[in-house]
């Protein structure tokens, strides 16, 4: 975060003299409190300064990078996920391509009854099968999808930063958001409840840049 010269001066004053009131900061700078108000708002919203009623401002000691990192660790996958788009394993390659266009997504989840994850299809999985010259109206998606247990997933409570790191590490475009359900015999099953794509991360990035979050 780039601070203005005046904001740097305010930070310096608070570092040296805090806790200090807004009135006193204004006096040091020979400005009115009203003039300083937007700067004080930026410095407190960003977390660099903290304000306590009847005490005044004091320096939080947090660097801007640290503050952004803390924010990213607080935001969860559940806060930014989208709705999942799923097909069944018997769905044909042709219908999967059509679904991708209609739903405007790049990753389809393949689920069985109850919404449990069986596999996943990316754009390139579908393109690849068209190279083979097979009948895409007959071929089911099961022949080309990436299958469980090889699917990288996330959960609503996971931090969006952890999930983004999985996307980068595993070089994929999207992760299914799941709830892990244990069957009667103890085997874990993944119930698909959402979708986290690079678009969700990019949207969050833009919103963070606008300073609204
Ligand atoms: P694209 O193929 O359009 O570049 P991806 O990079 O997401 O999209 O997919 C690359 C490969 O990784 C595909 O074979 C796909 O099935 C697989 N894949 C995509 N997402 C995941 C995931 N979350 N877990 C495991 N494999 C995945």
What keywords describe this structure?
213 residues; 2 domains; CBS-domain; 9 helices
Q: How would you describe the overall organization of this protein?
A:
The protein has 9 helices and 8 strands. With 213 residues, the protein is an alpha+beta fold. The strands form 3 sheets. It has a 4-stranded mixed beta sheet. The protein has a two-stranded antiparallel sheet with strand order 1-2. It has a two-stranded antiparallel ribbon with strand order 7-8. The longest helix is centred in the N-terminal third of the chain and has 13 residues, at 5-17.
Topology:
Layout: H1 5-17, H2 22-29, H3 33-45, E1 49-52, E2 56-59, H4 64-74, H5 77-80, E3 86-87, H6 93-103, E4 107-112, E5 116-122, H7 123-131, E6 146-147, H8 160-169, E7 174-182, E8 188-197, H9 198-210
Helix pairs in contact: 2-3
């Amino acid at each position: 975060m780039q601070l203005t010269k005046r904001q740097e001066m305010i930070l310096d004053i608070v570092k040296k003299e805090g806790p200090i009131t807004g009135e006193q900061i204004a006096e040091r700078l020979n400005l009115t409190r009203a003039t300083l108000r937007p700067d004080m708002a930026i410095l407190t919203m960003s977390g660099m300064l903290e304000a306590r009623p009847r005490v005044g401002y004091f320096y939080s000691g947090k660097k801007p990078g640290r503050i952004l990192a803390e924010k990213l660790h607080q935001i969860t996958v559940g806060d930014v996920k989208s709705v999942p788009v799923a097909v069944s394993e018997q769905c044909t390659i042709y219908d999967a391509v059509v679904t991708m266009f209609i739903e405007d997504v790049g990753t389809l989840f393949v689920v069985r009854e109850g919404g449990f994850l069986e596999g996943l299809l990316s754009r390139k999985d579908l393109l690849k099968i068209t190279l083979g010259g097979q009948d895409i109206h007959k071929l089911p998606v099961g022949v080309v999808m990436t299958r469980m247990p090889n699917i990288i997933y996330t959960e609503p409570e996971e931090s969006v930063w952890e999930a983004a790191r999985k996307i980068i590490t595993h070089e994929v475009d999207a992760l299914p958001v799941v709830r892990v359900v244990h069957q009667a015999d103890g085997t874990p099953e993944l119930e698909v409840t959402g979708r986290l794509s690079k678009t969700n991360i990019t949207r969050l990035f833009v919103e963070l840049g606008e300073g609204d979050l």
